[in-house]
Description:
The chain has helices spanning 16-24, 67-81, 98-108, 126-137, 157-166, 184-199, 233-240, 245-262, 282-287; strands spanning 2-9, 42-48, 51-57, 85-91, 114-119, 144-147, 209-218, 221-230, 266-274. By secondary structure, the protein is of the alpha/beta class. It folds into two domains: 2-166, P-loop containing nucleotide triphosphate hydrolases (Rossmann fold, 3-Layer(aba) Sandwich); 184-287, K homology (KH) domain (GMP Synthetase, Chain A, domain 3, 2-Layer Sandwich), CATH 3.30.300. It has a six-stranded mixed beta sheet with strand order 2-3-1-4-5-6, with helices on both faces. Helix 4 links the parallel strand 5 and strand 6. Helix 6 packs antiparallel against helix 8 (245-262). The protein is globular.
Amino acid sequence: MRSGFVALAGRPNAGKSTLINALVNEKIAIVSPKPQTTRSEIRGIVNTEDAQIIFTDTPGIFKARHRLETRMNKEAATVIQGVDLIYLVTDGTKPFGAGDEYVLTMVKNAHLPVFLIFNKIDLMPKEEVLKNLTSWQDRFAFDEFFPLSALNQKNYDDLLSTTISYLPEGEAMYPREVISDSPENFRIAEIIREKILYCTEEEVPHACAVVIESKEFTKKGCDINAMILVEKPGQKAIVIGKQGSMLKKIGIAARRDIEQFLGCHVRLTLFVRVEEDWRDIDSRISQYGYGHVDE
């Protein structure tokens, strides 16, 4: 049997979370069209007859403006150093840039097998796929490369079988029924944050954190109280909306996904609180479950 860890690395919005959800065949990582959607390492486990693959979705790597982002970048770098194989996930529709060079250098320095996952080919003509793919291959001798569409692709047999061939021999590290080791409250908080990302605009989504204050299972389902944290009073007003309309919209969308996750009826109550500059305060970042690696 073979078992090992595979890190998904890349720039924000390359499609890492979409890919890990597709590989695991369940939504374990939130997705949105906005950068910084993934803030912490998220693991997804795939079992086959002769292997166990532990995929790790890392925060997108980019120039940091806040302490939170510095810790996210460091967490991604640390995760990359502790795996058996790296998937460098790229947005194939975008030409190679300075941000890509930074991520590629980080991956090179890990001195591990690297697969180029050339994503979003469904949005490109074939000649552009070949041109952009070649520009990546000219910069580094990738061990394997896979052009694909994480959003639309259904079959990953070739990618999985090739991945397994690169993993060391060893026993399974998780029971076969486990698909993610993320705590339940963290996944619920992330579902709520995903809806904030979709429903609000501008700076508000990036200034938000979500904390589960209480969760109680009853005969009728599950009662959850969650606190949405923002940095400014104006952001609080936006998240609440006119007569509570935005908060209601977020709550309805989140409750639907949480019920699917927990498999029961959910009564979700959301609150909003201002926590000034929390993204630059280490203790707050850790308390809210983001940027697990400290400097």
